Amino acid sequence: QLRNVPVLSKLNDEQLMKLHKTCTKFSVRGREVIFKQGKPGDAFYIIQSGSAKVLHTSNQGHTREVASLKAGDYFGESALINRAPRGASVVAAEESILLMWTLEAFKKLFPALNVTFAKRGGISAEDNSAGACRFKPPEEAKTTKTKEQAHKIAAVVTENPMFMSLTEHVINNVIGMMYRVTIKKGVSPIEQGQTGDLLYVVEQGSFCVVRNGIVVGSL
Fold first, then answer.
1. CB within 10 Å: which end of the chain, N or C, has fewer?
2. Per the database record, which ranges form the Cyclic nucleotide-binding domain (predicted)?
């Protein structure tokens, strides 16, 4: 069954057996808290069956759902990799079965197995900040911003689950590297199925969200 998990699909039988021997399998009830925002990261999880919600509480005390996780999705890796507190809370949306690896097992097994935690929408509750920090804008990009633009970007970035575990200093660096692009009507800045490597903040205009050729939302 581990082979059916996307992030583990390329591992061989021997590697999967090592993972199986070191994981703990347990069930949770609907609405049961799996871990809380701000707590130390001590385990990594994969949902074998069921689903969960990712909840983030802002500095103002407002809590909202920022992502949903389903069977095959994983969460908890970011706090382990970055040694940072949990960037969000994860709560079971229904009765679910989870596979869990402790911090010690995670550190020994996953780097050795060369597991790549690719980001594809809602498959992870947290994110590793290293990739964002390595990004460099094109040489011709204009990164200067007005205070109003910087404030608007900050409001979006700080509410994005990808950046919730980052420090204010790192977030400011991310904002500083962002630059303006003009996208013509009819042009898609991102395509379904592509690897996500850019974050966009809409300053002006609007976009349609299309999934499998059908418009499912707007921005």
1. C
2. 7-110, 162-219
